[in-house]
Amino acid sequence: MTDMRRRVFLAGVGASTAALVALTAGQAFDVLAPVNLFAPRVKGQGPQALPVNRTAAQAGVTESAHDTSWRLEVRGAGARLAYTRDELAGMPQTEAVLPIACVEGWSTSAHWRGVRLRDLLAEAGMAQSGTIRIESLQSRGPYRETTMPPHVAWDPLTLVALEVNGGVLDLDHGYPARIIAPGRPGVLQTKWLATIEELPA
After folding, report:
1. Which of 101, 62, 96, 65 is nearest to 187 (CA)?
2. Spatial separation of the C-alpha atoms in residues 121 and 151, rounded to whole Å
3. How many domains does the chain have?
4. In this structure, is residue 75 part of a structural domain?
5. Predicted TM-score of the model (pTM)
6. Which CATH number goes with the domain that contains 66?
């Protein structure tokens, strides 16, 4: 009798797990979108056809992101530089189709356009072996800053993105500038950039 109850219990757990997966997988897979009943985000929905997991209002950056005095500070051993958004937009731009994946379970690709991070690092005299720290305009929260290893920072597809899917970044997607890099989870693709600096060796 005990074995029978155990089998029934395990079967119930398995069925519940399978149902939950099926009813949330639509946030990552188009074919399952019609049964995406319990997922917090829907693939293809949101500003510029991208879901948003944390809005500018939730991050408390609505005013600072639109402040005309905003500058992206890049601090290296060789120089401390500051760029307006117009200056960044006037630099050579790189386009790349890169995925963005969230810990909530959704994943989608987008067309990004911006300045290669490696170009800014080189201009500031940073070493290609150094770890980079990236800070957001957010004043609090676990993802207001992140670090990036050199192989990611100097990847030619790692961008300080200014546009996504053919338009200027929406505020909720990181305006005035954000990081997008290959193979990084969404929580490490820092939005609302403030500073990029080289950490001491």
Report:
1. 101
2. 13
3. 2
4. yes
5. 0.77
6. 3.90.420.10
